[in-house]
Amino acid sequence: MVISAQATTYIKARPAKVAAYAFDPSNGPFWVRGVLSIRPVYLKPLADGARMSVSLKCFGRSRVVVMELVEFDSPQAFALKTAGRRYGTYLSLSLNPHGVQHTRVDVKVEHELSPWARVFSPLVKLFFERKIRADLERLKNRIEVLAKLAAVR
Q1: Is the dihedral of CA 12, 14, 19, 20 positive or negative?
Q2: pLDDT tens column, 6-39
Q3: Helix axes 121-152, 15-22, angle to 10 degrees
């Protein structure tokens, strides 16, 4: 059973600026709740097939998950999936211009539940919906604040 959640936000910045921040793995811990660090498994540029070791803290437990970049179209979109796991997660983020100075950001998460977890599917879906909305709000605030600071300098 796969649950799906998605969210959209609008950021007052051009897509290239949003992509420069959102697509940089070192910025992940600043806007994705629960992510402690993201490190490349291989030292190579971001491209399809690149793998990242993501250190997470979720529901009070720490763990490390390897995510594979399955689609990378900078500055338009990227998609990640868990690598080598039976029940995994697929996450996609896309950026589209919205007017002259804004970017529409769409995030979709699909998570395959193990048989024992299926009974909790409504709660898991709610968790992912709230989480990605909150993550997008942090991304928006971070980019807009950084833009204001850059304008002051």
Answers
A1: negative
A2: 999 999 999 999 999 999 989 999 999 999 999 9
A3: 110
Burial of 102 (0-12, 13-18, 19+ CB in 10 A): middle
Give how far Cα 18 sits from Cα of 10, 44, 101, 142, Å. Answer: 11, 22, 11, 10
- Which token pair is 73? 């179209």
Query: For 94-144, what is each residue's pLDDT tens digit?
Result: 999 998 899 999 999 999 998 888 898 999 899 999 999 999 999 999 999
Structure-token match 């529901």, residue found: 59
Residue 18 burial class via C-beta count within 10 angstroms: exposed 0-12, middle 13-18, buried 19 and up = buried
